[in-house]
Write a structure and sequence with these properties.
mainly alpha
C-alpha cells in the first residue's frame, strides 16, 4: 500500500511538472523585445528600399541610356535581397514566419517584374505599361505586408520603438510614397498607370501631412548632431515643398528626386543614431 501511495504521489508530481512545463512553453517561445528590435529594423529597411527600387526604375525609364540610373535599380534590388535574407536568419523570426513567407513571395514577384521592365527599357527604350502597373501594385502589396509583419512583431514581443523613431519612420514612408507618385507622373503621361504608393491621398495632401510630422520633429529635444541633421531635413524640404504642393504646375523631377533622397538619407541617419542611444 505504501509503495502504491508513493508511486501515486510520484505520478502526481510528474504530471504537475509536465503541466507546468507546458504552460511555460508559450512564454519561452514568445518573441522577446531583444529579438523583435532587429526584426522591426529590418522590416523598416525592406520598406525603404522597396520604394526606392520602383523610384529608381522610374528614373531609369526617363533616361534609358543612363548607366548610373540602371545601377541604382540594381543596387536597390540587392538592398532588398540583403534585408530579406538577413530577416530570415534572425532569432525569433519564427513567430512571424507566416507573414514573412508572404512578404518573401511578394518580393520575388515584384523583383521579377522589376527585372522584366528594366530589360524592356534596355532593349526597346520603353516598358510595357501593363507590366509597370502590375509592378507598382506589387510594391504597394509588399509595403502593406511588411507593415503587417512590423505590427505583429511589436504585438507579440511588447517592444515599442521610441516615439521619435516611429515619427521619423512614418515620415520616411510618407515622403517615399510622394516621391514615387511624383516619379510615376514624370515617367508616364498615362494618368491611369499605377504609381506604386500605398495611399490614394493626392501628393499635396501628403505634403501637408509631412509638414505636420516635421513640425513635431522640430519640437523634439535632440542631441546637437541630430539637430544638425534635422536642420538639413527642414531646409531641403523647404526647397522642394512647393513642387509637391503644386505638382500639376511644374515638373522638376530631377530636383525633387535628388532632394527627397537626401532627406530620406538624413532621416535614416537620425534613426541609426537614436537606435544606438537606446
Amino acid at each position: 500500500m505504501r509503495k502504491r501511495n508513493a508511486l501515486h504521489r510520484l505520478l502526481q508530481g510528474s504530471v504537475a511538472l509536465f503541466v507546468t512545463c507546458l504552460l511555460a512553453l508559450p512564454s519561452a517561445l514568445a518573441l522577446t523585445p531583444e529579438q523583435a528590435k532587429p526584426i522591426m529594423d529590418g522590416l523598416h529597411l525592406v520598406r525603404v528600399h522597396s520604394y526606392q527600387a520602383i523610384n529608381a526604375f522610374y528614373s531609369f525609364s526617363l533616361s534609358p541610356g543612363d548607366k548610373s540610373a540602371l545601377a541604382d535599380v540594381r543596387d536597390e534590388i540587392n538592398q532588398v535581397n540583403g534585408q530579406m535574407n538577413r530577416l530570415e536568419s534572425l532569432e525569433g523570426v519564427v513567430d512571424i514566419q507566416g507573414t514573412l513567407s508572404e512578404l518573401s513571395a511578394k518580393w520575388q514577384a515584384y523583383k521579377e517584374l522589376l527585372n522584366t521592365n528594366v530589360n524592356d527599357v534596355v532593349e526597346q527604350g520603353y516598358p510595357d505599361l501593363r507590366l509597370v502597373s502590375d509592378m507598382a501594385q506589387l510594391n504597394v502589396d509588399m509595403n502593406e505586408i511588411a507593415a503587417r509583419a512590423y505590427r505583429e512583431a511589436r504585438e507579440k514581443s511588447g517592444y515599442n520603438p521610441r516615439d521619435e523613431v516611429e515619427l521619423i519612420r512614418q515620415s520616411i514612408y510618407l515622403l517615399e510614397s510622394m516621391m514615387t507618385k511624383y516619379s510615376a507622373r514624370s515617367a508616364s503621361n498615362v494618368a491611369q498607370v499605377f504609381q506604386g504608393a500605398d495611399t490614394e491621398k493626392p501628393i499635396d495632401e501628403q505634403a501637408r501631412l509631412l509638414d505636420k510630422n516635421l513640425e513635431k520633429l522640430a519640437r523634439l529635444d535632440l542631441p546637437p548632431e541630430l539637430v544638425k541633421r534635422r536642420d538639413k531635413v527642414q531646409a531641403q524640404w523647404a526647397f522642394i515643398r512647393n513642387s509637391y504642393i503644386n505638382y500639376n504646375e511644374n515638373n522638376v523631377f530631377y530636383v525633387v528626386n535628388r532632394y527627397s533622397k537626401r532627406i530620406v538619407k538624413h532621416m535614416n541617419a537620425m534613426l541609426e543614431a537614436l537606435e544606438a542611444e537606446a
